[in-house]
Amino acid sequence: MKRNLFAVSLAVAALSASVQLAHAEWPKDRPIQMIVAFAPGGSTDVMARAMQPFLEKELGADIVIENRPGASGEIAYTALAKAKPDGYTFSYINTPGFLSMQVQRKLGYDPKTIKPVACIVDDPAAIVVPAASEIKTLADYIAAARAKPGAVSYGSSGIGTDDHLAIILLGAESGTTVTHVPFNGAGETRTAILGSQVTGGGLNVSEFAGNDTSGLRMTNTFGKERSPQLPDVPTAIESGLNVEMTSERGIAAPREVPAEIADRFAAAVKATLDNPEFQKQAKQMALPLAYLSGPEWEKEMPNRLARFQEIWNKTPWVQQ
Hints:
Layout: H1 2-25, E1 32-36, H2 43-59, E2 63-67, H3 74-82, E3 89-95, H4 97-104, E4 114-130, H5 138-147, E5 153-156, H6 162-174, E6 179-182, H7 186-194, E7 200-204, H8 205-209, E8 216-221, E9 246-254, H9 259-274, H10 276-284, E10 289-293, H11 294-312
Parallel strand pairs: 1-2, 1-3, 5-6, 5-7
Antiparallel strand pairs: 3-9, 4-7, 4-8, 4-9, 4-10
Helix pairs in contact: 2-9, 4-11
């Protein structure tokens, strides 16, 4: 019996050593898959591709970006939740979307099986209209919505995203009703605004200021204060409306990914954000960098989740 116990102990020790060695050698001989929950051309996709070469250098591995748009991010997050926790599958996640969908509907995955690794940016939402529109300001947009309830339309990156929640709050604060038109990402929303398929739509500061703005006008942002990237654009708060909404974008992994792998990936993200060359690119893309470690970011999420539950209960019309 003692001999058998000794053999079992040796086997357990060998297995533990091999697992530790595998972690120490990560990443090795395989590319790392990075899932993006929205269609190409949006801020998350652009940010992911800008960070790709820097992360590859920091980690010493190839990174493959895969766009999996749909269901406001649920398709991508489901894929992440079901992936092996071996350090070779990560995903960009966006809040409020990642959180707000938890209070909207029954999901195809358990959010607890996803582990935040690092927050990268905190990007204010905003209303954007065609440059030729008669709507010049937030007051104009509200006046148009009041004049013909439901006739004014608003495009967003999907149900429960930050731009969608911003218009819910705006409707509650101003007593207006607009028709919500969800798309699969900011790129599609931008195209719809340019083509006057919608009266206006939600784009984040980086999605506007980091691109060609011809043909577009931003009426306001939903930041707490004016954006350094767009100092001439007023906030909704300045207009007397208590509406604040931003988009946090970061990276997550399957919950059971080894801590040392998650920590190393977070360190690679931080090194990328501290790299002067990347910071130059981030400035050109108008990315409001706001790094948080995974544990710090996750610690903030329960309060944000409670807030989104409150917002979601304000106006049932947007859920249709």
